[in-house]
Amino acid sequence: MNPPKPLEIMVACAENRAMGLQGRHPWPRIHEDMRIFHEQTAGKLIILGRICFETWPRAALDGRRPIVVTRRKELERGEVRVTPSLGEALALADSLPGPACVTGGERIFREILDSTRPLTLHLTLIHAGIPGDRFFPEWRDQPWTETYRRESSDEHFRFTFFTLERAGRAPEPPPRTSPPRP
User: Fold this and answer.
1) With pLDDT > 90 as the criterion, what percentage of the chain qualifies?
2) How many Cα atoms are found within 13 Å in the side-chain-facing hemisphere of 150?
3) Which residue in 10, 66, 116, 130 has the fewest CB atoms around it within 10 Å?
């Protein structure tokens, strides 16, 4: 069995954690963020949900090897792999060479943030409250170490690019089923 590899998370969200609305970003295109996103995911294993895959036309380009978490096996073709669960997607990523990156959606992000794996969070934080129907889970209460920060803006928003590191955590011990022996 392969050891769990560290994971990178790529996400853009607003101050209120909104990251999606009706299958799209809920803000006008931020060209600088999109350029960085495509550069940082190129050549990597990409773990993502079906909606993210179907709305990202470049998911399988630039050397990316998508692992789509869905039961829809018909999406599997070429470099695109399909697994029915995040656990199976992670096991597949651990068995394949190269770094792995998680790009969404909401449920997958929640499960990854709850995991014990070492994580690198590449976060574009848009300094606005934006309506949405998909939200990035609360990350601020976890023990992150900030390793990079850069402020930027475009004609619509101010935003900050962050890189945050989280060391792996020990798994929770299983609950005791019987009282300890004296």
Assistant:
1) 87
2) 9
3) 116
3-state secondary structure of 108: helix
> Would you call 173 helix, strand, or coil by DSSP?
coil
With a cut of 60, say whether residue 13 has pLDDT above it. yes
Predicted confidence (pLDDT) at residue 171 exceeds the cutoff of 90: no
Whether the CB-CB separation of 150 and 160 falls below 8 Å is answered with yes
- pTM attached to this predicted model: 0.89
CATH topology for 7-166 is: Dihydrofolate Reductase, subunit A (3.40.430)
Quick one: tokens of 82? 């399909």
Cα 3 from chain centroid (whole Å) = 19
Cβ-Cβ contacts under 8 Å for 34 (sequence gap 6 or more): none
Contact 48, 105 (CB under 8 A): yes
Q: Which residues contact 56 (CB under 8 A, 6 or more apart)?
A: 48, 103
Tally Cβ neighbours within 10 Å of residue 130.
17
Q: What is the signed CA dihedral for 103, 106, 109, 114, rounded to 10 degrees?
A: 180
Going from N- to C-terminal start, the domains of the chain cover 7-166
Cis-peptide, bond into residue 105, ω within 30° of zero: yes
Reported as a single tens digit per residue, the pLDDT across 76-129 is: 999 999 999 999 999 999 999 999 999 999 999 999 999 999 999 999 999 999
In this structure, the chain runs to a length of 182
